Amino acid sequence: MRVTQSMLTQNSLGYLSQSFKTLQTLQDQLATGKKISRASQDPVVAMNGMRYRTQVTEVQQFNRNLSEVYNWMDNADATLDEATQAVQRVRELAVQAANDTYEETQRANIAKEVRQLREHLESLANTKSNNKYIFNGTNTTQAPVTSANFNVGFAGVAGELNGLPDGAIERGATAHVLTHNSERFVLAEKQGDQFTYQRVDPNTGELDPNKTITITAPGEDNQEILLNANGETEELQDRQVIVSMNNAVSTNGQTVNIELLKGVTIPVNIRPENVFSTDFFGDLIQLERALEDPNTSAEELTKMIGNMDRQMEKIVNERAELGARYNRVEMIDQRVQQQEVIARRTMSNNEDADIEKVITELLSAENIHRAALSSTSRILQPTLMDFLR
To answer: Does Coiled coil count among this protein's keywords (predicted)?
Structure first.
């Protein structure tokens, strides 16, 4: 076969073009640090890279969610800790006041401190984190506690009571609730000027007909309040029954769930009715009013110490439940960190170039290219200009 000058030229130029292409690929890898810069260079690497990048993006979002969860739970735990201390202080004051040797003025001064502690607890219930109310379920833009709706008295609901028809009252038909000794009572029946309230079971939420408060002529001078429990009747003072509006404390029971892993969500909020409930503030107001009444006996104040113990137990139980969720969040956090390391390593192995290898191949390709240029310059026939020189 006859080899012509034209064939040598074309082949040499083709090899030089291929050498340039190799140099360009290696230089792109060295500049970008990636194996490919276009999907067409290696579709398999490109498709795997898309999946791996999705995993890394998910893990990054989970890390942001974890920061939000920690912020929410840390604030909730700190608030519950302050609430525990405040209730403990109220209990100490109740113990101190449960002494018949204390004078009217001394108990009145204690009542002032109880009032300040109650107002402090109301502010704790309205704690905000990242401009969100953390004790109002999913309604994070509205304060869960409205202090003006506590202790409105029977005079404040007289219009509502007088407007009700006689007979059984459908639950939810009234806008107020009674509290007495850590328990809530809602209106169940009306007969003339007599109103019967039934206890709300704290576990089931059902009405208990075995424990009722019957009020005759509420708000009038001849008002009478009777507590009926399992067949036994006890007459109560007006200050022992606290009348509050239903919306004094939010009843939003919806949980705030945040996804921390694929398909794994954790509730991060505390339901207000579990801690800062109507009966919680009702007990504080009941104690405050008892301290302001000079006729209150030490025995009655001693019973109220039990109310504080019950409310403190509710806070401790809710805090323990929050702590259990916090421990799980920490375990999920460790798992997310491990997944992030694995996802980034897998993505790196798929698309990152081996820089040492690329440099070695680039140096080798440069030497080959120089040798090709040198050999091509010798093979190509001299031009007319070479003869003229």
So the answer is: yes
Q: Cβ(187)–Cβ(197) under 8 Å? A: yes
Q: Is residue 173 part of a domain?
A: yes
pLDDT more than 70, % of the chain: 93
Q: Which residues pair with 186 in a beta bridge?
A: 198
Output the domain CATH number for residue 68. Answer: 1.20.1330.10
> What are the tokens at 299?
């025995």
The span from the first CA to the last CA of the chain, in angstroms, equals: 34
Q: What does the pLDDT look like over 334-353, one tens digit per residue?
A: 999 998 888 888 877 777 67
Please tell me the pTM assigned to this model. 0.80
From start to end of 247-290, where are the E strands? Answer: 257-261, 264-267
Selection from 343, 354, 358 nearest residue 48 by Cα: 343
CA distances from 274 to 147, 174, 185, 259, 285 (A): 18, 22, 17, 24, 18
Long-range contacts of 5-9, Cβ-Cβ distance < 8 Å, separation of 24 or more? 5/380, 5/381, 8/379, 8/380, 9/380
CB of 114 closer than 8 Å to CB of 106: no
Average pLDDT, integer, range 106-119:
94
- Report d(CA 229, CA 231) in Å as an integer: 6
Q: Which of 204, 261, 286, 16 is nearest to 8 (CA)?
A: 16
Separation of alpha carbons 187 and 287, rounded Å: 23
pLDDT tens for each residue of 196-206: 999 999 888 89
Rounded to whole angstroms, how far apart are CA atoms 46 and 63?
26
What total number of domains does the chain contain? 1
SS3 of residue 123 by DSSP: helix
For residues 200 and 62, give the distance between their C-alpha atoms in angstroms, rounded to a whole number: 41
Cross-strand pairs, 179: 184, 242
Mean per-residue pLDDT for 261-275?
Answer: 86
- Beta bridge partners, 257, equal 267
